[in-house]
Every structure is written in structure tokens, then in C-alpha cells.
Amino acid sequence: MNPEAFMHLAIEEARKSQTPFGAVIVQEGEVIEQAGNTVQTDQDPVCHAEVNAIRQLAKRFGNAAPSGSYTLYSTCEPCAMCAATCLWAGIQHIVYGVGSADFADGNPNMIDIPCEEVFQRSPKQYTIENGLLRDACKQLHQEFPLEDL
Fold first, then answer.
1. Per-residue pLDDT averaged across 40-61, rounded?
2. pLDDT in tens, 77-88
3. What's the burial of 82, exposed, middle or buried (CB within 10 Å: 0-12/13-18/19+)?
4. Closest CA relative to residue 96, chosen from 116, 79, 80, 76
């Protein structure tokens, strides 16, 4: 599979959760975990797609920070909480579709700290790529506006 295929899986997870947010964790070209946002269905404010996928990863390996090189694909730029969770879990590479500046349905709960800033404060090396399938990820915000969630 290629990066676009992984992002398409994240988009599918977003649609399944009926939110604009989906995430996929990949290791060595293989999908390890995937999840959508379940904040509303679980009545839990931290059940963002990235956190849900990381929780599944940790349970799978029985370790809060599983060893290995992981890439997280997310339909949206990870918020400050999700970026910090990625750091704690040892996710070394982030690829996302749209950033908060790319859509008009801004989340009133969003802390205005770009994920790049969170990662810059880490002593570890991380890479971040943005804009993968931007239009398809942006479309999710039209399908599932945040004000409807």
C-alpha cells in the first residue's frame, strides 16, 4: 500500500464514525491499527481518532509506548492533546490531510497550538507531512460539520 491508500483508510474511519476525523497507524507498510473519533458516541472528550488508534496499538502490544517505527495518518492535523499522545507513544512520523486553517468549521475547543510546535519541543526526532489528499479530507468537514457534532 502507498501513503494515499493509508489516508483513504483514515477517511473511511472518519466516515464510519460520522465525523471528519479518522486515523491509521502503519508500521513497515502494514496497517497496524485504525480508528475514528468516538467523542460523542463514547461520551468521552479524549476519544479523538488518533488517541483511539494509539490506545488500540498499546493494548495490542501490552505497552504504553510500543517499540518500532510507526507512522500515523490522520485526516486532520493532530490537536495539541493528540500530538502529545503521539510523542508519549513513540509515533515518529505524522502525515495529515488538512490543518485547522484549511476549514471553516473551526472547533471552539481547539487549542491554537500547531502539532509542529508540540513536536519541536520534544528531544526526539519526528517528521510531519501535511496536505496528503487535502481535498478529500476537507470534504469530510462538509459531510460532517463540527457544529452538528
1. 95
2. 999 999 999 999
3. buried
4. 76
Closest CA to 19 of 98, 75, 82, 103: 75
Q: What is the pTM of this model?
A: 0.92
What does the block give as the cell for 110? 481547539
The DSSP bridge pattern shows strands 22-27 and 30-36 to be antiparallel
In this structure, the number of other CB atoms found within 10 A of the CB of residue 105 comes to 13
- Helices then strands, counting H and E runs in the chain, come out as 6, 5
Q: Of the listed 12, 50, 143, 147, which one is catalytic?
A: 50
Rg (CA), the chain: 14
**pLDDT tens digits, residue range 22-33?**
999 999 999 999
C-alpha cell read off for 122? 520534544
Tell me the mean pLDDT in the region 41-68: 91
Burial class (CB within 10 angstroms; exposed 0-12, middle 13-18, buried 19+) of 135? exposed
Residue 4 a catalytic site member: no
Length of the chain equals 149
Burial class, 54, CB count within 10 angstroms (exposed 0-12 / middle 13-18 / buried 19+):
buried
